[in-house]
Amino acid sequence: MAFWDRLKSGLTKTRDAIKQGTEDVLVQLDPTRPDWDRASLEPLEEALIAADVGMESVDELLERVRRARPRNRAELETTLIDEVARETAGAPETAPAFQSPDGVKPWVVLLVGVNGAGKTTLAGKLAARERARGRKVLLVAADTFRAAAGEQLEIWAERAGVELLRQKAGADPAAVAHDGMEMARSRAMDVVIVDTAGRLHTRTNLMDELAKVRRVIAKLVPGAPHETLLVLDATLGQNGVAQARQFNEALGVTGVALTKLDGTARGGVVLAVRKELGLPIRLIGVGETLEDVDDFEPKAFAEALVRG
Q1: What is the rounded distance in angstroms from the CA atom of residue 177 to the CA atom of residue 78?
Q2: Residue 268 and residue 253: Cα distance in Å, rounded?
Q3: What are phi and psi of 167, to 5 degrees?
């Protein structure tokens, strides 16, 4: 099954709720002279809120629908798709393709986020993707605290066919990052992906440690990290937005990767993250295989969320 087909399947719970909301709206209206006031849109409003779209985005979506005055399900769905795509796209200049730009070597990606968000899995998937593009890839296991984190990343490195730098448990993450940058330069690596330990966004000392890792990388590789990617678990919904805000303030996040979009009833959180944080959605993940990650495409996502 192709990636976007898997995404459509994974968003079934969210999409079914939104479809029920649109159906309930249409039932209330006279199809010949619909009265598209805010009260008549309450079923759709409730469905969007339940999907964790975020109140600001909900208000804007409903206002667009009210002004469009669609005459049937197809027109209502098309209006929603167009608006979801517009909301999640943002300014195109802020979100170039997530890939190593020409002339940048090594291209360094730093993955950050709380425990359980899926950073290590994403690191392996990204490594496999870059390797398939013909690039020399190094995975750096800077998560030295979580039990078996290094072993897990080693398995991903073997599956992806890339090199791995890891040190003993309890090693200083900044020192690991330092050695990773040195190894990348000495072996002419094209891409370096640095996996870090989960951090509670409310723990200042842990966030300071991440900032130190970032400074070490920047000192050894000018302009790096070129991407500081915040990995969010989509099943957390709005709770993930609060996490993202703290990480962004501490680290200057360049984009968001949303994982575990398959099976969640909160797929609308994509809109909330984009709207409330102003950060581009760079990548989305839907499963555990090497192929289960892709660049975020607003129009394709909107179709999967609303129409399927």
Answers
A1: 47
A2: 21
A3: -125, 180
Which 8-state DSSP code applies to residue 236?
G
**Contact criterion met (CB below 8 Å) for 270 and 56:** no
| Residues 101-128 pLDDT 10s | 878 899 999 999 988 888 999 999 999 9
Q: What is the pTM of this model?
A: 0.90
Contacts within 8 Å (CB) and 24+ apart, 247-250: 247/112, 247/113, 247/199, 247/201, 247/207, 248/277, 248/279, 250/207, 250/210, 250/211
Are the beta carbons of 202 and 246 closer than 8 angstroms? Answer: yes
The SS3 assignment for 281 reads: strand
Q: How far is CA 266 from the centre of its chain?
A: 13
Other Cβ atoms within 10 Å of 26 Cβ, number: 18
Q: What is the CA radius of gyration of the chain?
A: 21
245-275 b/e with 16+ CB inside 10 Å = b? Answer: bbbbebbebbbbbbbbbbbbbbbbbbbbbbb
Q: What is residue 74's three-state secondary structure?
A: helix
pLDDT in tens, 220-266: 999 999 999 999 988 887 777 877 888 888 888 999 999 888 767 78
The Cα–Cα gap between 242 and 240 comes to: 5
